[in-house]
Structure formats: C-alpha cells, structure tokens
Amino acid sequence: MVICEDCLDFLKKMDNKSVDMIYLDPPFFTQKTQTLKDAQGNEYSFGDVWNSRTEYLDYIKVRVCELKRVLKDTGSIFLHCDEKASHYLRLILDEVFGEENFRSEIIWTYKRWSNSKKGLLSGHQTIFFYSKTNKYKFNTIYTAYSPTTNIDQILQERVRDDRGKAAYKCDDKGEVILAKEKKGVPMSDVWEIPFLNPKAKERVGYPTQKPIELLERIIYISTDEGDVVLDPFCGSGTAVVAAELNNRKGIGIDISKKAVEIAEERLKKPYKTESKLLKTGIESYKTKSAVENAILNQLDCDVVQRNKGIDGFLKKYYKNAPVAVKIQKASESLCEAVELLKTAGEKKKCSAMILICTKDDDLNRHISIPKNMIVIDDYKIQIEHELTELLCNLCVSNL
Amino acid sequence: MVICEDCLDFLKKMDNKSVDMIYLDPPFFTQKTQTLKDAQGNEYSFGDVWNSRTEYLDYIKVRVCELKRVLKDTGSIFLHCDEKASHYLRLILDEVFGEENFRSEIIWTYKRWSNSKKGLLSGHQTIFFYSKTNKYKFNTIYTAYSPTTNIDQILQERVRDDRGKAAYKCDDKGEVILAKEKKGVPMSDVWEIPFLNPKAKERVGYPTQKPIELLERIIYISTDEGDVVLDPFCGSGTAVVAAELNNRKGIGIDISKKAVEIAEERLKKPYKTESKLLKTGIESYKTKSAVENAILNQLDCDVVQRNKGIDGFLKKYYKNAPVAVKIQKASESLCEAVELLKTAGEKKKCSAMILICTKDDDLNRHISIPKNMIVIDDYKIQIEHELTELLCNLCVSNL
DNA sequence: TATAGTATTGAATCCGAGC
DNA sequence: CGCTCGGATTCAATACTAT
C-alpha cells in the first residue's frame, strides 16, 4: 500500500503500536536539489532544501516522535542517513527512543566510481538501528566462517586450566570430545552490498534508490512473515517492494505524487528475481542466484536469462542439438518444472533436457517424465536419502 | 618522543601551529576500566569511568581546542572513537574546527572473535577526519581496481552527448580514443584492516592497542616525510611508532606512567607485525576452486581449510556428530580419496562421510568403501551416464 | 623448505550465583 | 528486583610442531 501525503498527517491517523518495523530514508540535509533523468527523459526531483539545520531537524523530529507512537513494543526503527547530518539525527533518536535502545550503527559499504576529488572517496552510508524497548524482535542471520578459521578445531570441546590456558577436553580414554553443532558467525554491523548498478533492472529512475538486498536484510533481522513494515519516506518504494516479496505487509508514504506513481507501478509486478534471499530460512543466508549459477557452472553451461523454462544449455551438443538445463525453483512443484522445461526445450529443438530437482516431494515422484528428459536430484537430496539409509543400517548392525 | 603528563598541561606549553597531524584515540566513554595483562603478567589499565557524559565531553573539548591551536594551517586531525559517543564527539569537532572542515568519516572494519549476542556483531570503529583549513595537505593513495572492473573499457575516453548520456569518444575513423593512463581507484573511506590478533607479535599488552597498519594509512594520506605527528592519548604508542617507521617525527603524550614506559620500550626497536593476512590478503586463505566452493555451498557446508582429508563439514550434525565432506581432487584416484577421507573423518569422530567423485574411472569402481561413507558422482558424471543411456535408448526405439 | 595439523589467546558477550 | 562478579563461550589469526 502506498499513500501520497505528508507522512506526518498520515501518521496522526494511525493507531498506537500498530507497526512492527519502520525504515526511513528521509531527505538528506544536502542543501541541494536532487534530480535525475530516467531512460525516457522524464526528470524527477525532490526539494531537499531547508532554511536552516534547525528547521530540518525539527521537521524530522516531530515525525520520529509520531513514528515511535505507532511502533509496537517489540518493534524496531532503522534510520538511513548520510554522513552530513548523521550525528544530529542520532541525537534525535537518542532523545526520542532513549540511548539504552540504541542497537547498532549499521554501515552499508559499496564500491563506487571515482570522481577523483581531494580526499577519501566516500564509500558508505549509515543506518541507525534503535528498538522501542529491550524486548525487541530479532532474527540472527548466520554467515560463513572466515577462511582463516580452523573449523575442524572449533568442533572440539575445550577447557581452560587454572592459568587460563586452553586445551582440548578429553574423555577417560584420552579421546577428544565433540562440541555442539555450530551455527555460523552472527552477522556483523558492516554490510557490503553493491551500490545500485546504473543498469540494474530494478532501477526505476528515482534518486537515492536503495538496493533491495539492503532492505531485505533489515526486514529479515527485524520482522517475521505477516508483520507490518512502514516506510514514511518511501520514494520509489524499495522497502515496500521488499516487504511484499518477503510476505510482510508494506506501507509506504511519500509526499511526492511522482514517487507514489512509480512505487505503485513497481508494486504491480515486483520482479521475483529482485528478491535475493533464500526463502528456506534465515540460517542459509545465500543468494538464490548464486546457487543456481554454481550448479550451471559445474555442468559447463551457457547461462540463459529470462527464460522460465530453461536456465542454461550444456556447452556440448548431443546428437547435434543443444541440451537444455533447468533448476527447479522453490516456488515450482516438480510437475510444473517438468512441464515448463518440456515446452521450452521442445521449442528450442533440444535433443535432451536435464532437470535438477531441488525439493524432496514424494507426492510428485509418480508424474510422468518425457523420454528425453533426465531428472537428477541435487546433491542435498541425494545425500539426505543416503544418509538416512546409512545411519539406519548402522543402528541395525550395532544390535 | 613520549611524554608522561596530562596532555592538556603539555599542550599549553607547545607553540602555535607547530604540528602537521594529530591522531587521538581518547577513552571511548565505555564507563569501564580497561585492563590487560602482558605475557610477563604485568597488568596495564586505564580508567574510562565518568560521573556524567557532560564531564567526559568537557574533558575532551578543552583538549581539542588546544589541539587546534598547535595544528598548522595545512594540518589535519583524526579522532578515533566507537559508536558509543561518536555523535557527541563529532559535535565537538564541528564546533571547534567548523563543519566546513569535516573531510571524512573513516570506517575501520575488521572481523573479530566474539560470543554471539542478540543483535548485530559490532565490527567497526569510526575515525573522524577534520582539517584546520581547506588548504590541507592530502596525499591520495590509489588502490587496485576491483577484479570486476573492465579495465579496457575505462581506458577509453568518454564524452557526454546532448542528453547527458556518456559514450565512448571516437576519432574520425570511428575508432575509440584511449584515455590518459589510469592511476587506480582513490582510496575509500572504509578501511578493512585486521584487528590486532591475540597472537600478534606486535602486541605489547596494552588495552585497546591499534594496528600499526591503520596509523600508517593515516600518516601517509596526511603528512610528508619529516612532518610532526602528535598523539595526545598515545597509550602504547602505536602512532609514534608508525610515525618513526615512516620518517615522521612522532610526539606521544600519556598520563599513565606504564603506558609511557611501554611506548618508550617499543620505540627503541620499532616493529611491525609481518601479518600474513595483511601481506597476502584474505584470498590466499581461500584454497578451494570455484567448483569445489560451489559444491560445498550447495551441501550447506562449513568450509575447512588446510586439511587434506576434509573439504567441509555439513552444518547439520547427524547422530550428534559432524559429517565430513571431501571432493575428489584431479590428482587423486578414488582409492586414495577414500583413504584420506576415512582417516581424517575418523580422527574428527564423524558419524558419516561423503565423498564427491569427480572422475569417471571404471578401474576404481570395485574398491571397498567404508560402511559409513557415501560416494556420490558429481552432476557431470551422472548426466553423462544418463545421457548416453537415454540417447542410446532413443536410437533403438527409432528403429 | 613447504604443507598439514595442533595449540593458544583476547575480550565481547551471556548467564547464573550471590547479595 | 536490580546490581555486580565470576565463569563459560565464542572465533580470528597467529605461533608452533610434525611430516
């Protein structure tokens, strides 16, 4: 839902404690007017000019106060700002939400084209993360261990002796004791996410547009499915789109008619591919496209873009015709995937087709597969089957 | 030179405009006493406990004012702090040096060992960079282009057409014109420098010791050889050591006798850790090929480095024990791979082992596999087998 | 000497005991 | 109930040892 109104006016009409998370990216105090032309030559701009900083800060502060009111007690607020006025904005947050509710200073870093000026190239923006109370909702995202870490070592339990020296814990027989299952490294407050590429598909031609991955991270760590996400300065609506793509309810507000038009247009058909996080769980924090690419790479494929039925072709031909490859999407049943690949493969006159099955769905095992199609379970499924069997056998043989 | 005195007292004795650069790393307002023991059991500590924030800020402010006085007009000041009080400190800098002399908010990021907490793991500190005037000294450091940059493209001159779009400049014959030699990418304000490791030789046992690399960067960009570098809260003297190592004159001041002792000791033989990580980069720790990484990724593995028998562990335990994964190397026969995995897996008490077979070698198919090991062909082999069979069957049925 | 494998260590954080 | 204090846990990155 996107509303065209001064957010202050709309907020006043909202109920107390009705929102789970707020992301706001207010106009920066740049004293300049931001303009940008899109591919069609339309020009967008927004007034980002204030008579004084006090005026600017007052403008923000009354809105932040209202935002606190509509936020649930378990809720969080993320304020995105640039280095120009970040310290003043944080003072406001300290005052309104209380210093004790400061959670993190998130640094979004990116590499950018240099316009070599004197000084260091600015390559980051700051997002302040405050919660309303200390009973805030938080989902930890676990990331990979550093390559410098010796994983096999930390899988062993350890003790410290009286002098504080560490040693491996051993049982009576002198054998090492295993540690509990490891979850990975909790995510840091420094996020390296590429700056919205000038050619990116998701770009809709609005200034200061943020990458969707940034918003998805914020949404994941602070909300669950079905929660309400509010963006009072929504601009082109990235936060609302990210919320909808991840089954949260998004409310966007913007005073600019043009912005609301763009956001609404975007919401009508949010690119599925825009969503970069795996739906299967926060633990497996990986980009879907990365996994798909990895599989296609292993198979020695040319990658096909924008084809619902085919993700790639084997570089090698068989019977003088290409072999199409498709990887089952999380949203597709095996049956649907087979049908999509079959249609697309026949159209391209493939001699054979390969479907990589990524879901272990017994109900679908009995569907008919075309004669020239090979269905292969991905490694995870193969292994799960074999592991279950193997461990079961081991139990039996132990009797 | 290191002086043991309250820096305010010493600064008052210093001449106007006598210093080229100031780095200060004052107490962070942690409201804790920072302590650390060195290898010999000596304990060092400094108090960072205040009656109020106002008291803390006043303490800093009078000193910052004096610092401005002793700084040359071409000089710069770098204030190191963490997120606890950074916004207040920046207000002081704005007030004393003027907002117009704000140059950069430098983010020092690092990975760090830590227990997991609710929320994001803090992985950065902030250094505010202000200059005394706009005629400040600055040496640009150029860094390497990122591997994704298309070097040959940026070597072509560009023009903007009437609509403001960029295009490659061409000569009469329509050939592209080469741009002037590129120097690299100017350094960003986000610096990834490893945190001083517990095992680093550079460590002298003083709390909050900073890596020399960090100080060297600051010194490079803001001073020339022979310039005077002042650190009014020098602690173990990292800034002074870095200055001396780079032929600048370093002046360190600290109120703690012990700190000054350590700093002086360090200055007798200034030493910079030969950090392998810094020298060779994180990439050199990543020993897996792209395909290997892709497989481990798909299997949801933690990646294991420097282990001949194991490439990764499944993140999930089976039977309360880890499952080891190995990918057959091109140089290994299946037999050898099985043996290596078996030995390593048993040592780590794995409940099961998985070997991904990457070579289609019939001779090896008859070797014996341990009961708790699963051998799976990689996709390529599976597909090749099935394709051959399929296409053969199709031929037969065509007859 | 190069590589594989093992032993340490700091300090942020949580948790539970004691008051 | 809120405070402090001690103990346990965590992992990045080194040094050291064995082969």
Which class of the largest domain in chain A in CATH terms?
Alpha Beta
Could you name the CATH homologous superfamily of the largest domain in chain A? Vaccinia Virus protein VP39
- Strand arrangement in the largest pleated sheet of chain A: 1-14-13-2-5-7-6-12
CATH fold descriptor of the largest domain in chain A: Rossmann fold
β-strand number of chain A = 19
**Biggest protein-protein contact in the assembly:** A-B, 87 and 90 residues
H/E topology pattern of chain A:
EHEEEHEHEEEHEEEEHEHEHHEEEHEEH
Would you kindly provide a written description of the structure presented here, covering whatever features stand out?
Two copies of one chain form a homodimer. With about 400 residues, chain A is of the alpha/beta class. The first copy, chain A, has three domains: about 1-140 and about 185-280, 3-Layer(aba) Sandwich (Rossmann fold), CATH 3.40.50; about 140-185, no CATH class; about 285-399. In chain A, the strands form five sheets. An eight-stranded mixed β-sheet of chain A has the order 1-14-13-2-5-7-6-12, with helices on both faces. Chain A has helices at about 5-10, 55-70, 85-95, 150-155, 210-220, 240-245, 255-270, 290-300, 335-345, 380-399, and strands at about 1-5, 20-25, 35, 45, 70-80, 100-110, 125-130, 140-145, 160, 165-170, 185, 190, 230, 250-255, 300-305, 310-315, 325, 350-355, 375. The radius of gyration of chain A is 26 Å and the shape is globular. In chain A, helix 2 packs parallel to helix 3 and helix 5 packs across helix 6 (about 240-245). The model of chain A is unreliable at about 200-205 and about 280-285 (pLDDT under 50). Helix content of chain A is about 30%, strand content about 20%. The interface between A and B is large, with 87 and 90 residues. The structure holds a DNA duplex (19 and 19 nucleotides).
